[in-house]
Design a protein that fits this description.
The complex is a heterodimer of chains A (308) and B (437). By secondary structure, chain A is of the alpha+beta class. Chain A contains 9 helices and 7 strands; from the N terminus they run H-E-H-H-H-E-E-H-H-H-E-H-E-E-H-E. In chain A, strand 2 and strand 3 (111-115) form a beta hairpin. In chain A, helix 2 packs across helix 6 and helix 3 crosses helix 5. Chain A is extended, with a radius of gyration of 24 Å. Chain B is mostly beta strands and 437 residues long. Chain B has 4 helices and 31 strands. In chain B, helix 2 (55-69) crosses helix 4. The relative contact order of chain B is 0.09. The chains are: A alpha+beta (308), B mainly beta (437). The interface between A and B is large, with 79 and 50 residues.
């Protein structure tokens, strides 16, 4: 072969594959870019929400009480569509199959379910919204919820739970993508995107029971320490604002770092949130909840609420 | 090649997963309380002169009461305090933060005072207990008689530092009282203290109203037999009669820019209508000219509209008029007698006194006529007036016998009397923020 400039040289067939590889790679890159730009919400910060209020709705389905439902008879069958499975995990997975969940941030309490297939879910959602509006009921709900949870908890096979946690640890060991505090896992049915569903802007965390309980404990403690004294009128100007803080927790429950992820624009709301977290230190140790991690990070959102 | 595609696909998948797999966020839906827990121990005597008048506790109790009235603070009971006041310091380096965080305080006010020859020096500091840090400190010099004012000043500082809003603790209230035998105008601090008599007409004086700079008062007096309008400078006591037309010259109120005065005149025909005049008493324009009686005008905070009372529909009701165009719309429809409107400094609400049955009560209503709320329910309640921050309303009530001035939060909470005794106290007018104090 005479020496020709490399660009004129004959391409051996083995290298042709490489060229094709490059072409395909470029194509896929382009596709990826288009997807990232084109799919709404994909480029905006993604959040997974945890809210015990929400949990009430998904987990507190009366199946666990073996027929002793608190639901009106007519609704029972619909409820049971949701109330499948023996474990919270299964329920959550089932729900995932049938609907797309989105938490509506501005109202805080209201959970807006985007129902894609099951109209049954719609009925439940309506009920849920009514319940959420009624704070008194909500408190009872919480009680009922925790007792229901206890029952469910008992039912969850200890071995299966260990597997889940093991799987969680594996996933975390694999390296946390995007710096998430809680890993992703299909087998463990943990968080976010584990089912690969095209969630919208923000979704409800699909967490294993022990994590749900731990998040719930964090929520309760911080909430009880949150005092927000904003004059009337100020809050009206702040509708929809929220402050987001990031908290790093050590295994012994100590909060080792608090940082603002997003300030609200109102220093007094920001400060009140910081104080609430600071006052909540230490949080419960991980081992009380069977969580085997050296530390983890979670975000905490404080909305500018309408004061009376 | 299949391999390459697989690799590329998995790279893409990883990237997407990176996007999807996000941190878990806990949503705290509402605060446990909407009040700021604060501890205020008695101020320390830092000088050698014994504290004969209990100034230390006076200062802390005035500040405590101020903050309590604001409705935004929860005062921690001093009995719960853990620190030993005899050894405790008033500076950050000598504060045991745990003593205060343990009892739930988020903020702490500490201070001390020196009694000096002919004067008083007060130091006050605000601390953030949760962070264990100093927030603000002030030193005041004054006469011993100004102890309350000094305390109010620091309350304003605390309010501003902790909520971002200007406090009302240095504001004052003008009102009419018959305590001197005839009806005259008196002035009190917003909490009822430091009562001063302003006019001495030995006649009937009515409806005082502040100038926007808080330096003058405008009112109606029968001093010369006819209800005429007077302006009085509060500092110097100089007084001028500015409107003395035939018939009624009543219920004057300064426009927010201080350039015009709106009032009710009845002139020749005896029918009351609303007019604009300047401070010299010269007529600028006539705003209403119908057969009905139009009285009690008050300005919107932007000066573009007026709320007033008219019986054009048969019974006295509150109406709103656009000053520029004269366009009028009716605001109140419930009740047979709604009167003395006052426009909230925030612009979104109007308070008025309305009769249902035998008694008048204080109401608020949004300026679009929605959200009518009854704020009082005991005795007769009249003449509401907003605090300059729009968070409080002063009014007069006969709920315990004689008419007294009360203040309350704008939602009707925490109603408390700020005048005492047997006299009848009416027509409260809450001052603007008094920048000269």
């Amino acid at each position: 072969m005479t020496s020709l400039p490399y660009y004129l040289s004959e391409v051996p067939s083995s290298e042709l594959t490489l060229v094709w590889g490059v072409v395909i790679s470029s194509f896929l890159h382009l596709l990826l870019i288009l997807v990232l730009i084109g799919v709404p919400g994909l480029l905006s910060p993604k959040r997974t929400y945890f809210s015990s209020t929400y949990m009430v709705k998904l987990v507190d389905v009366p199946r666990g009480t073996q027929g002793k439902t608190r639901v009106a008879a007519g609704e029972r069958s619909k409820e049971e569509k949701l109330a499948v499975g023996e474990t919270a995990k299964e329920k959550l997975e089932k729900v995932e199959e049938t609907k797309k969940v989105e938490e509506k941030k501005s109202t805080g309490l209201t959970v807006k379910d985007k129902v894609e297939k099951s109209s049954a879910v719609k009925t439940v959602q309506k009920k849920v919204e009514v319940r959420v509006k009624d704070k008194e009921k909500d408190k009872n709900k919480e009680k009922e919820f925790s007792s229901a949870l206890d029952k469910i908890k008992e039912r969850v096979d200890e071995r299966q739970r260990k597997e889940k946690i093991e799987s969680l640890r594996e996933k975390i060991a694999e390296g946390e993508r995007a710096g998430t505090g809680v890993g992703v896992g299909e087998g463990g049915a943990l968080v976010v995107g584990s089912s690969g569903l095209p969630f919208g802007q923000g979704m409800i965390a699909n967490l294993p029971l022990n994590y749900q309980l731990y998040y719930s404990a964090i929520e309760q403690k911080i909430k009880s320490n949150w005092n927000l004294a904003l004059p009337r009128g100020v809050v009206e100007d702040m509708k929809g604002m929220e402050v987001v803080l990031s908290v790093k927790i050590k295994a012994d429950g100590e909060i080792v770092d608090i940082s603002y992820e997003q300030k609200s624009g109102n220093i007094y709301l920001d400060e009140s949130a910081f104080r609430a977290i600071k006052k909540s230190n230490p949080l419960p140790p991980f081992d009380e909840y069977n969580i085997r991690e050296p530390f983890f990070e979670t975000g905490i959102i404080f909305p500018a609420v309408e004061l009376l | 090649m299949k391999k390459k595609v697989m690799v590329a696909a998995s790279v893409m998948w990883l990237l997407l997963m990176g996007r999807l797999a996000a941190k878990v966020y806990i949503y705290i839906d509402a605060p446990a309380t909407t009040k700021f827990p604060i501890a205020i121990p008695a101020f320390k005597n830092l000088g050698d002169v014994p504290d004969a008048q209990n100034m230390g506790t006076s200062v802390s109790s005035v500040i405590s009461e101020d903050l309590e009235i604001s409705g935004l603070f929860r005062l921690i009971n001093p009995n719960a305090f853990l620190e030993d006041p005899s050894t405790a310091g008033i500076t950050g380096d000598r504060i045991e933060w745990k003593d205060w965080s343990a009892i739930g305080a988020e903020a702490l006010i500490k201070g001390g005072f020196y009694q000096e020859e002919g004067g008083l020096r007060v130091e006050a500091r605000l601390f953030d207990v949760v962070r264990g840090s100093f927030v603000s400190g002030k030193r005041y010099f004054g006469k011993p008689t100004e102890l309350r004012l000094v305390s109010h000043k620091f309350s304003d500082e605390v309010m501003y530092r902790l909520t971002g809003q200007k406090g009302i603790f240095q504001t004052q209230i003008l009102f009419v009282s018959d305590s001197g035998g005839t009806k005259d105008i008196y002035l009190i601090d917003f909490d009822g203290y430091n009562r001063v008599k302003i006019t001495n007409h030995k006649s009937i004086v009515l409806s005082p109203s502040w100038s926007p700079d808080g330096k003058k008062v405008i009112f109606t007096s029968y001093k010369d037999g006819n209800p005429d309008v007077y302006v009085r400078e509060l500092f110097y006591g100089r007084e001028r009669k500015i409107s003395f037309q035939k018939g009624l010259n009543i219920a004057p109120e300064w426009s927010p820019d201080g350039e015009k005065i709106v009032l009710t005149l009845s002139q020749d025909d005896g029918n009351s209508d609303i007019y604009l005049i300047n401070e010299e008493g010269e007529k600028i324009s006539r705003l209403t000219s119908d057969w009905a009686n139009d009285v009690s005008p008050c300005w919107s905070p932007d000066g573009k509209e007026l709320a007033f009372v008219s019986n054009r529909s048969g019974s006295p009701q509150v109406y709103i008029m656009e000053v520029k165009t004269g366009k009028v719309r009716r605001l109140t429809f419930e009740g047979s007698y709604n009167t003395s409107p006052a426009w909230s400094p925030r612009g979104n609400k109007i308070t008025f006194s309305g009769r249902r049955g035998d008694n008048f009560d204080i109401y608020t209503i949004a300026t679009d006529g929605k959200d009518l709320r009854q704020l009082t329910s005991s005795g007769g309640n009249e003449s509401p007036s907003w605090s300059p921050d729009g968070r409080h309303i002063a009014f007069s009530s006969n709920r315990t016998g004689a008419k007294k001035i009360y203040i309350m939060l704008a939602d009707g909470a925490d109603q408390r009397a700020v005048t005492w005794g047997d006299s009848n106290d009416t027509d409260p007018a809450w001052s603007p923020h008094l920048n000269y104090r």
